[in-house]
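Summarise this fold before class:
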Amino acid sequence: MGPLYVAFLLGRSLLRKGASLFNVSIFLCVWASIKIPMILFEIKFLGVDFAGLRLALTIPGIIAIGWILNFILKGDIRYETA
């Protein structure tokens, strides 16, 4: 839970510590799109079917985004500690 700009700082720290681009991109996507309060809001106002379908479609999409980013950028993201 928290604002998305915090997730970018955590993602940068993860990359500096050696995490793969695939894992960091999945972390950022999940932080942005799957939050417990948002799921509860969807269940209450849009129904369990909608919330379940969105979650079921979001998770494979997030994995695909991580794989595509890792493939395109070849996992070759390096940061200097300047």
